[in-house]
Design a protein that fits this description.
This protein is mainly alpha-helical and 215 residues long. It folds into two domains: 92 residues, Endonuclease Iii, domain 2 (Orthogonal Bundle); 101 residues, Endonuclease III, domain 1 (Orthogonal Bundle). The chain contains eleven helices and no strands. α2 packs across α3, α5 packs across α6 and α9 packs across α11. 38% of the residues are buried. The structure holds iron/sulfur cluster. The site of iron/sulfur cluster (SF4) has 15 residues, from α9.
């Protein structure tokens, strides 16, 4: 039987309540000091681990603090810095193009709307949501591999396209809880509801999960 939207909303609220207690410190795993650093690191984290991006970028941001600083680097120089990040050649191009748009169109500042962010080179809704939610207090569902997988297993979405998952979740998670949902579900995916073998026996929301002990 299909679950009603009302039931799903109430089940999502209970899940969020329990997981918020379980992971009170859940937060973005990328290290950043300002919206520009988070924007660039999120762009680089596609198909790469946050740990790797932090390892490369934390020292780099100490030397190059602004979009204009990055634009002083040639493609070859920046490639050299980003070499250990997956797809570094294409990502180097995107970073430089993004910095150019920031300087030319936004006075070197990171814009604060979805419409403007997704017009920047290399920036899609996923990256834009990370920046909006973490830096600007905008309600945002930050879809990533962990959030998508765990939300599907919990039966809170039956879609697999990030934009559709985002729409489904926005329908049942209140605006003011969306950033928290993104962080705690991400943390749950990293620690318990793992991709290959979820640890359902250790999961604090297994009584609310339709996939429990069934994967
Ligand atoms: S019960 Fe299992 S499948 Fe469901 S959320 Fe917990 S770990 Fe994931």
């Amino acid at each position: 039987m299909t679950e009603t939207l009302k039931n799903k909303t109430s089940r999502a609220a209970k899940i969020l309540d329990i997981l918020s207690n379980e992971y009170p410190d859940a937060a973005c795993h990328l290290t950043y000091n300002n919206p520009f650093e988070l924007l660039i690191s999120t762009l680089l984290a596609a198909q790469c681990t946050d740990e790797r991006v932090n390892m490369v970028m934390v020292p780099l941001y100490k030397k190059h603090k602004t979009p204009s600083d990055f634009l002083k680097l040639s493609q070859a120089e920046l490639e050299d810095e980003l070499r250990s990040i997956n797809f570094y050649r294409n990502k180097t191009k995107s970073v430089l193009a993004c910095c150019l748009s920031l300087v030319n169109e936004h006075n070197g500042k990171v814009p604060q709307t979805m419409e403007e962010l997704v017009k920047l080179a290399g920036v899609g809704r996923k990256t834009a949501n990370v920046v909006l939610g973490n830096c600007f207090g905008v309600p945002a569902i930050m879809t990533d591999t962990h959030l998508n997988r765990v939300s599907q297993r919990l039966g809170l979405t039956c879609n697999d396209k990030p934009e559709k998952i985002e729409t489904d979740l926005k329908e049942i998670i209140p605006d003011e809880q969306q950033v928290k949902y993104s962080h705690v579900i991400g943390q749950h995916g990293r620690t318990i509801c793992k991709a290959k073998k979820p640890l359902c026996g250790e999961c604090v929301v297994n009584k609310l999960c339709p996939s429990a002990f069934n994967i």
